[in-house]
Amino acid sequence: MTRIFSGIKPTGHLTLGNYLGAVRRWVEVDQHRADALFCVVDLHALTVDHDPGRVRRLSRQAATLLLAAGLDPGRCTVFVQSHVDEHARLSYLMECTATDGEMRRMIQYKEKAAREQQRGGSVRLSLLTYPALMAADILAYQADEVPVGDDQTQHVELARDLAVRFNQRYGHAFTVPRAVRPQVAARVMDLQDPASKMGKSHAATAGIVYLLDEPDVIRRKVMRAVTDSGSEVAYEPDTRPGVANLLDILAACTGSSPEELAEGYDSYGALKKDTAEAVVEVLRPLRERHGELCADPGQVDRVLREGAERARALARPTVDAAYSAIGLLPAL
Ligand code: AQP
């Protein structure tokens, strides 16, 4: 059976981008067709300036939202990365397999390092080695597929390269994974800055729809979305990214194509109104279920405990074998 691994970072409240670009597919497709592991990758949240209490709260919230969105622990494994030591153990072997140049070429590293420096902060070493940990996340489970949005495909490519290199040097240890991207809404853009993706860790929040935003807040954010100077609704992502983003979001929420939708509108106002309502409706059941799960915290605890146990049992033999293959003396 195909094995899938994917993760979500507790660096902020989950957004519509996370949902349309990743989580919805995990729920509707991936957990039904494969042996799927979904992980709150909390170690990755420590690669930039962080508040310990906030990371803990966001980790819990992310896990609860994944269940609220419809991940079913009877069908898939939901767990927290730091609960399974094998991620950090294997990450070191990946650092010993990757080169400094490969890490520095990563677009996300360059962007985030620049952001940290602009803020006057220093760049953590773990930001540079982040892709080694991500490769470990994937390879520890012998994952065949990694469903990700556009922003993460470069990291999955590197994980592939590291798997191939390790296998060639030390004997077959890892499945070589591949990135799988959703057809629609692979990249949801910020409503106020359609040149940037809607990212949960961004400081300016007016263009970001959070999964737990109240319906009226969602409506306000969508109605205030930046569009373009023209007035005719057309799907032209390169020249009119603001309108294209709204059409992509509406298409993802309604299962239509953005080009077809564009033909049905003659004003930005009507497009925004329908987009806002579509987003509110898509998120409504998720918000309700989140409320129910918060009232029963024992249920989330149980899912995370059992998820970590299963993940550990899957990862340990692979990581032990990799330790031995690379030349380390097995513990007695
Ligand atoms: N805007 C987006 N559109 C489509 N997919 C997205 N994803 C994230 N944003 C969008 C996908 O959601 C999954 C989990 O994302 P993540 O936690 O790795 O990244 P993030 O939400 O983008 O978090 P940050 O902290 O805001 O990100 P950065 O690191 O960019 O600062 C992934 O499959 C991702 O592709």
UniProtKB/TrEMBL annotation:
Which residues hold L-tryptophan?
Answer: D137
Q: Which InterPro entries match?
A: aa-tRNA-synth_I_CS, aa-tRNA-synth_Ic, Rossmann-like_a/b/a_fold, Trp-tRNA-ligase, Trp-tRNA-ligase_bac-type, Trp-tRNA_synthetase
Q: EC no.?
A: 6.1.1.2
The entry lists its GO molecular-function terms as: tryptophan-tRNA ligase activity
Q: Which reaction does it catalyse?
A: tRNA(Trp) + L-tryptophan + ATP = L-tryptophyl-tRNA(Trp) + AMP + diphosphate + H(+)
Enzyme type, top EC level: ligase
Report the subcellular localization: Cytoplasm
- Per UniProt, the short sequence motif 'HIGH' region occupies residue numbers 10-18
Keywords in alphabetical order, please: Aminoacyl-tRNA synthetase, ATP-binding, Cytoplasm, Ligase, Nucleotide-binding, Protein biosynthesis
Top-level taxon of the source organism: Bacteria
- Signal peptide positions (record): none
**Assembly and binders:** Homodimer.
Which HAMAP family would you find in this protein's record?
Trp_tRNA_synth_B
The name on file for this protein is Tryptophan--tRNA ligase
Q: Which organism is it from?
A: Streptomyces silvisoli
| Name of the coding gene | trpS
